[in-house]
Amino acid sequence: MKGADTAGHQVPGPLLAEGTERLRAAGLDNPRREARLLMAHVLRTDLAGLLARQNVDMAASRAFFDAVGRRAAHEPIAYITGHAGFWSLDLETSPATLIPRPDSETLIEALLHHRPDRASVRSVLDLGTGTGCLLLAALSEYDDAWGLGVDIAPDAARLAARNARRTGLGARCAMINGSWTSAIQDRFDVVFSNPPYIPHGDLPGLMPDVRDHEPPRALDGGMDGLDAYRILTAALPSLLAHGGIAIFEIGIGQERDMPMLARQAGLEILDVRADLGGIPRAVLMQNCRC
User: Fold this and answer.
1) Contacts of 235 (CB under 8 A, 6+ apart)
2) How many alpha carbons lie under 13 Å from residue 98 in its C-beta half-sphere?
3) What is the DSSP annotation of 181-198?
4) Longest CA–CA separation in the chain, Å
5) Helix axes 12-25, 31-42, angle to 10 degrees
6) Phi and psi dihedrals of 261, rounded to 5?
7) Order of strands across the sheet with 188-193?
């Protein structure tokens, strides 16, 4: 093999160059960076460690090009590597759940803004918890809080439980398999949800990374994208503790319709916060009587 020594080792540079070209040919936006991330994953190092690497053995070379092939087919990097960062946490990922996204960190920022006193939050509920990212990020900031994550997909609930243990927060939360509001008798200081909110007709137009790989049940919000919010806002008055707040993620263009549903359910809108791209992303609510 070109570039290989007598022991079958190769230097990383040519491998990265070839991987970059394959990803570029697949139409990916950042082919060199993604090639480096994939090689770092295969070699079990970080990007800094990759720079110091002198050679790559044949098994690692094959694993690298296998990963490049998966990424060229638009499989998300987080599914290939099996983990993703969110807030200050490193979380396990799988096709059972959506991949945690920086946009969703807006919900944690909103919570910190409205509840700056770290002793003010004692209980957190996350409806449709997925990887557990929102619940676990909140617990990492509020040391006295306990949390409950609920997901209708058994594999997602199990993944969230593994992430709780992975982050050292397993003793402070429970992750259960169930519908959003079934058998929940307690009231909570904070209720999170990042529900399905993509209008059904928009699903075919999503990027192939999302459309072809992430779970449709976590994306499809019904004909107008608001089905989940109708259910969730109706349930909130019985889930919120006195003075408690709910923080929901919304999609593009939903900053009017979703708050309207909340008001119809007897909730007061406290804030609508934008993500780093300036898109309204987090809606904060509380009971009007609080």
Assistant:
1) 180, 181
2) 26
3) STT----EEEEEE----B
4) 77
5) 130
6) -60, -40
7) 173-177, 146-151, 123-127, 188-193, 240-249, 280-287, 267-274
101-160 confidence digits (pLDDT tens): 999 999 999 999 999 999 999 999 999 999 999 999 999 999 999 999 999 999 999 999
Q: From the annotation, which residues make up the binding site for substrate?
A: 194-197
Whether residue 226 contacts residue 198, with contact meaning beta carbons closer than 8 Å, is answered with: no
Q: What is the pLDDT of residues 68-80, one digit of tens each?
A: 999 999 999 999 9
User: Residue ranges for the binding site?
Assistant: 128-132, 151, 180, 194-197
Give the C-alpha distances (Å, rounded to integers) separating 245 from 43, 114, 138, 197, 217.
Answer: 44, 9, 13, 20, 26
Q: Which domains does the chain have, with CATH numbers?
A: 12-73 (1.10.8), 95-287 (3.40.50.150)
**Residues forming the annotated binding site for S-adenosyl-L-methionine?**
128-132, 151, 180, 194
What values do phi and psi take at 188, rounded to 5? -130, 150
Residue whose structure tokens are 């990265």: 16
Sequence-distant (≥ 6) Cβ neighbours of residue 116 within 8 angstroms: none
